[in-house]
Amino acid sequence: MGSTSAENSSPEGVGRRDLIKRSAALGLISVPTMSFLSACASGGSDDNGSGNKDKGKGKGKTSKTNPFGVEKGGKLDVVVFKGGYGDDYAKAWEAAFDKKWGTTSAHTGTQEITGKLQPRFNGGNPPDIVDDSGAQQIKLDVLFKNGNLLDLAAVLDAPSIDDPSKKVRDTLIPGTLDPGLQGGKVVALNYIYTVWGLWYSGKLFKEKGWDVPKTWDDFLAICKDAKSQGIGGLAHQGKYPYYINVAIMDLIAKQGGLDAMKAIDNLDPKAFVGSDAAAAAIDAIYEVVEKGYLMPGTNALTHTESQTRWNQYKAAFITCGSWLENEQLKQTPTDFDMKFMPMPSLSGDKLPFEAIRAGSGEPFIIPAKAGNLAGAQEFMRSMLSKEWSTLFAQKANSLTIVKDGVNAGVTLRPGTQSTVEASKAAGDNTFNYLYPNWYSEMDVSIQNASNELMAKRIQPKEWLKRAQAAVDKAAKDPASKKNHRD
């Protein structure tokens, strides 16, 4: 949900412990072009993409080092979702920005994004820059349809702070701009390089003699063994079915290949009903439910409740994105040895075991009616510098979409390091869905169906029908014609 950052919490965990040895962290930067959409964006208008040219408010003299004309001594209003990554990183950014530009940044860290910001958007006085994420995210497609989002083309086409001979967009990991596309324009910057999949404790696996399961049968065998020892097989964040959809959608993409993924994003009339890949995936997930391999009580728990029980060795596996490690800093035993793994393979998968969902999460936006557009755009350009990318890695224990974005002195924790290694192993075999950002109502409907499935209130065939109905409804919206994956 921005997910990727989803409904994260435990904000005070950020930066509370020293990062551990990094080793091959920079290997992530060699991730090849992702196997989906190439990034694209249309140009912005003079007043809507180049620093609020016609307003004059907050507008200083432009130069090569100040392309948007940031005015010295201005004010900047920053609102950040205070979830799994906390907000210490943003405070560090704001301090650096204020020192450089003589500005005064107003900082708000909150999980109540909609509650705090919807009235401001409605009133025409939104913040200057927003990390629009979490359970109370204002949906990007809704903001876009209402004309509330700035086209970020001017930021992406501005000179990079680290290498002014390059555009900002050319310094980013390929494919990471795609989730911010609405109607062919990049209107959200998904800043954090994220992988999604299964997580486990290296310590628990070593104690139990379990090997990392590469097939679904091997995965079920571990779940069965865990259950026999009073341990749950799979935990999921029951109150937020976004998370179990990570498993379901990964299985669909790996079983049916990129065509199965694109069919969902492109609202195909056979995206779910009539899709052999979707049927195989949902049957596999339901087998976990039917055989009683879910961690007891997991359907009724929040994300942090489920994750904390998993940290207490009450389940072998949990589904999540790579913000998990930072979110659980306080709850994770020092010798837990958190590890990431791809979704295990079903028989006949078109993508290999190593294939993972990988891309960018945590969407940052600049409201079209921001009071200091010049400052907001320069702030975002600064986010895409190595200095600020490194600050983020130090404070939030995660990687950004900036190539080579972490300075050599920064170290990574075991879970984050395992995502680096998984990304390298995946190579070109990465995928990422765009429908959650394009069609938020459809996304919620599928999540609701998954909630019913995991509680055994519906069967796999009914899940497929509900998911397809959500696709068909989205396809009837004329605006959907503007979104398409080749």
Report what the structure shows:
This protein has 486 residues and is of the alpha/beta class. The chain has 17 helices and eleven strands. The chain has helices spanning 46-49, 88-101, 113-123, 140-145, 153-156, 202-208, 216-228, 242-265, 276-290, 303-311, 324-327, 373-383, 386-396, 414-426, 435-438, 440-454, 460-475; strands at residues 75-81, 104-110, 129-131, 181-182, 185-186, 189-201, 232-235, 315-321, 338-341, 356-365, 430-431. Helix 2 (88-101) links the parallel strand 1 and strand 2 (104-110). It is globular.
State the helicity in percent bands.
25-40%
Structural class: alpha/beta
pLDDT average, as an integer?
Answer: 88
Low-confidence sequence ranges: 1-58
Number of strands: 11
Major pleated sheet: 9 strands, mixed
Taken as a percent bin, the fraction of beta residues is 5-15%
Order of helices and strands: HEHEHEHHEEEHHEHHHEHEEHHHEHHH
Radius of gyration: 22 Å
Write the layout of secondary structure elements.
Elements: H1 46-49, E1 75-81, H2 88-101, E2 104-110, H3 113-123, E3 129-131, H4 140-145, H5 153-156, E4 181-182, E5 185-186, E6 189-201, H6 202-208, H7 216-228, E7 232-235, H8 242-265, H9 276-290, H10 303-311, E8 315-321, H11 324-327, E9 338-341, E10 356-365, H12 373-383, H13 386-396, H14 414-426, E11 430-431, H15 435-438, H16 440-454, H17 460-475
Helix pairs in contact: 2-13, 8-9, 9-17, 16-17
